[in-house]
Amino acid sequence: MKLKPLGDRVILEPLTDEKKSKGGIILPETVDKERPEKGKVIAIGPGKIDESGKRIPMNVKKGDIVLFTKYGPNEVKIDGKEYLIAKEEDILAIIE
User: Fold this and answer.
1) Cα torsion 60, 62, 67, 73: sign
2) Of 3, 11, 12, 79, which one has the greatest count of Cβ atoms within 10 A?
3) What's the whole-model pTM score?
4) Is the pLDDT of residue 84 over 80?
5) Whose CA is closest to 49, among 40, 58, 39?
6) pLDDT (average), residues 12-21
7) CA quadruple 20, 25, 31, 34: dihedral, nearest 10
């Protein structure tokens, strides 16, 4: 199944940092139940339309790694994989 976001929405693949204990043991994702705040842009919508009817181009592009607000995006599960759908305003920064 292919997702195509509408308006100024962005499809994100959540990225989790690998957690290690002080002793160097890698901890599984289930240890930290917090929602991720970093993700990879999988798809972008065409952009928002302003009051004059002009489309505002998106500031992010497919493949960007971004930081976003923790509880802004909506979670969806497609074909057994988790994705996040966020508005562009929920994205705080692009990691370069």
Assistant:
1) positive
2) 12
3) 0.76
4) yes
5) 58
6) 72
7) 10
Alpha-carbon distance values, 14 to 45, 46, 55, 76, 81 (Å): 18, 21, 27, 11, 10
CB 63 within 8 A of CB 40: yes
Domain with residue 88: its CATH number is: 2.30.33.40
> Per residue in 37-54, pLDDT tens?
899 999 999 999 999 999
> What tokens does 14 get?
């959540």
Q: How many CB atoms lie within 10 A of CB 31?
A: 8
Please indicate, yes or no, if residue 3 is contained in any of the structural domains. no
Domain-located, residue 1: no
Per the document, the length of the chain is 96
